[in-house]
Sequence to fold (215 residues):
Amino acid sequence: MTGSAATYLPDKRSLRALRTAAASCQGCGLYRDATQTVFGKGRAAARVMLVGEQPGDREDVDGEPFVGPAGRLLRAVLDEIDVDTTAIYLTNVVKHFSFRPAERGKRRIHQRPRASEISACRPWFAGELAAVQPELVVCLGAIAATAVAGSGFRLTRHRGAILPRPESVGEDLPGDWSLLATVHPAAVLRAPDRHRARQEFTDDLRMVAQLLAGS
Ligand code: URA
Fold:
């Protein structure tokens, strides 16, 4: 039977209390092989929350979101458009690394999280939303976008547009934020025309810079 992180939620719902409680989450089976929970990072006062899929190999080891190759690209793009990463909150819809061992060698191959794992982990994301109360939620990639805005959400249709909170967002996700969806930075790294993909990704994220530059 699939569990849920709900059992592990603390009484107090500050970011610090949530992070501490999430460290011992066994709400789904991913905790067994992962090194640690990778909780979101940033200030409770952040106006923008960036949401990815799940920690990767590097994040699993370091315990911080977006510190591996995809994260480095994301941070470089944010830096280029003058978004101070301390002004945003970075997290993932799944807080443990999901992987399978490579057939040969010690490499760990990223594995797409199952729907049951995304749903089991959701109370942590809902807790982060309640604690941070962002004005804008930026979904990085289709997994994050559909986890947040529902399975009918099409990244190809809505990419790069600021949408008022879609009705398809579940009521368990608190707040009156707008939504911006773009591709995952890992997809930019894999794109055949990486230069163009990076440019388009950068253009999507300019909305974040504009919001933060306004009052
Ligand atoms: N990919 C993600 O979606 N999140 C991370 O934290 C790292 C890579």
Q: What stands out?
A: The first strand starts at residue 48 and ends at 52. The beta strands are 48-52, 88-92, 99-101, 108-110, 136-140, 162-164, 178-182. The CA atoms of residues 149 and 167 lie 8 Å apart.
